[in-house]
Write a structure and sequence with these properties.
Helices cover 39% and strands 22% of the residues. The protein has helices at residues 59-78, 116-124, 133-144, 199-203, 205-217, 225-229, 236-244, 248-272, 282-287, 289-302, 322-335; strands at residues 7-8, 14-15, 24-30, 34-41, 46-53, 87-92, 96-97, 102-106, 111-114, 127-132, 153-158, 162-168, 171-173, 276-280, 312-315. β4 (34-41) and β5 (46-53) form a beta hairpin. α3 (133-144) crosses α11, α5 runs antiparallel to α8 (248-272) and α8 (248-272) packs across α10.
């Protein structure tokens, strides 16, 4: 369990325990590596937290057991019993049918057509809402973060991969097959070799790290050459430190990826006439405004017609909390509690 923390709202109000009578949800950000849980109220304040390893190798039942232990740990951190919760919201990798709570396909968890909502309902007795993890994060930013008050919005999350979510006409939009917003799988370079054609293949942290490693092995100089030569994974934090320090190779590769991502975003803004784009995820947190500003310039340059160039391209304000806040708020809003 994490150390006890004070709850922080998006308005900067600090509260140590939930107010008496507050309606509370557990918001769960279920990732391939970690499970993060926050106890959320209707204002998006986080009162207790926990974080644990997912351990996908434990299988579906093992991951569910770890998720529920993490919920109990977050409740303990908030000073409440699980019975105090009104509902549970979960953001999970892969496309989800929110009407049934079935995870259709989660590659990094090796799940196919798993009835996550019904299993969690049966084991907790709580109402449960399940959606894609990036959709949950985008929902959090729309309700309480950088997307607040936007009627038409795209969220783009850059990390291990590239994910996205849409708000259209003031409502989350999943589309007929529940996969709208999956911009990482858009083809960016049609003539490239398989495995290097999509937006995710070119603009994710994974793609950026692999490209830098290739160039270092081709004798390009970089301050992170030792990380590459030792065979270590190039983490977002390492990239962020080198980027801010002005490492020529790191800046070249990251700026190229930002340019490509911005061009794709500009095309989507043109297609849907969007009011706002929120950029988040681990890479965005590590690189900050200089990275977002390059994405912004490319997106605005490509947007058409002129009026569409007024689109706001902004950085996430909820940061790592977007997923837990969004999952919790989505559950509270959807269930009307």
């Amino acid at each position: 369990m994490t150390e006890p923390v004070h709850a922080a709202s998006t308005d900067g109000v600090q509260t140590s325990v939930p107010p008496a009578g507050a309606t509370l949800a557990a918001g769960v950000d279920l990732g391939g590596t970690n499970i993060q849980v926050g106890i959320i109220d209707a204002e998006g304040r986080v009162f207790g937290r926990s974080k644990t390893k997912t351990d996908a190798n434990a299988g579906f039942e093992g991951v569910v057991a770890r998720l529920l232990r993490a919920v109990d740990q977050a409740c303990a951190d908030a000073g409440i019993e699980r019975a105090r919760l009104s509902c549970l919201g979960v953001g999970t990798p892969g496309p989800v049918d929110p009407s049934t709570g079935v995870v259709l396909e989660a590659v990094n968890l090796r799940w196919d057509d798993v009835p996550l909502r019904d299993v969690l309902r049966g084991q907790t007795g709580l109402d449960v809402v399940v959606d894609n993890d990036v959709n949950a994060a985008v929902y959090g930013e729309w309700k309480r973060g950088a997307g607040r008050d936007a009627s038409d919005m795209l969220g783009v999350w850059v990390g291990t991969g590239v994910g996205g979510g849409l708000i259209l006409r003031g409502q989350p939009f999943g589309g007929h097959f529940h996969s709208a917003g999956e911009i990482g799988h858009m083809i960016l370079v049609p003539g490239a070799a398989p495995g290097s054609r999509s937006l995710e293949h070119n603009c994710s942290r994974t793609a950026i790290a692999e490209r830098i490693a290739q160039l270092v092995r081709a004798n390009r100089k970089s301050s992170i050459a030792d990380v590459v030569n030792e065979g270590k994974r190039i983490k977002s934090r390492v990239l962020g430190d080198a980027y801010r320090a002005g490492d020529d190779l790191v800046c070249e590769v990251i700026n190229d990826a930002a340019e490509r991502l911005g061009m794709a975003i500009g095309s989507i803004v043109t297609l849907l006439s969007l009011e706002r784009v929120v950029v988040g995820g681990g890479m965005t947190e590590a690189l900050g405004e200089p990275y977002v500003s390059r994405i912004r310039r490319a997106a605005i340059r490509e947007a058409f017609p002129g009026a569409v160039k007024k689109v706001g391209v902004v950085e996430s304000t909820l940061g790592d909390d977007a997923g837990i806040v969004g999952a919790g708020l989505a559950a509270l809003d959807y269930l009307g509690v």
